[in-house]
């Protein structure tokens, strides 16, 4: 009886190996689509639609260094006020093309922008503090560059709250109070 059992186990083992061999080696060839002798079709990508742009007013340090001057530039269109505020500030924070001089410290990025109930909350990277040259004039130029860029381009926004790395800050360099939203200050824009 043991030889009969041994023969049965051996037969089952051979059958399992045969089925495994068929599944591993033969089945992929049976399932794979047949290659035609015709040349393969070339896939051409549709040209991308041009990115939608709008005209926005960006602000740079005036020639005499005592205020800001507005310059019209094309910026990416934002689908909603928050996205538009972010696109405007990303353009504002980009390195300035000479002869323009920016008041935004190099390396500063927009971490986020949120618009609600007439106020814009602008979250910027800590580079705005660590890279800031200091001084009350420089700090006011930096702050009002952000405020003017948002308020001049988004008429529904009446105040701008600047956050640094997602947190409220008292000031950037010790001179301008950032504890509440700031409003348009025409004294800084020439």
Question: Could you describe the 3D structure shown?
Answer:
The protein has 190 residues and is α+β, with helices and mostly antiparallel strands. The protein has one domain (53-188). It is built from 4 helices and 6 strands; from the N terminus they run αββαββααββ. The strands form 2 sheets. A 4-stranded mixed beta sheet has the order 3-4-5-6. Strands 1-2 form a two-stranded antiparallel sheet. A hairpin with a 2-residue loop joins β5 (159-164) and β6. α2 crosses α4 (136-153). It is elongated, with a radius of gyration of 32 Å. The mean pLDDT is 87.
Largest sheet geometry: 4 strands, mixed
Gap from first CA to last CA:
107 Å
In the sheet with the most strands, the strands line up as 3-4-5-6
Q: Number of DSSP helices?
A: 4
Contiguous uncertain segments of 5+ residues: none
Mean pLDDT: 87
How many beta-strand elements? 6
Radius of gyration: 32 Å
Helix content: 25-40%
Q: Beta-strand level of the residues, as a percent range?
A: 15-25%
Shape: elongated
- What would you call the quaternary organization? single chain
Secondary-structure element pattern, one letter each: HEEHEEHHEE
**Domain module count:** 1
Question: What would you call the structural class?
Answer: alpha+beta
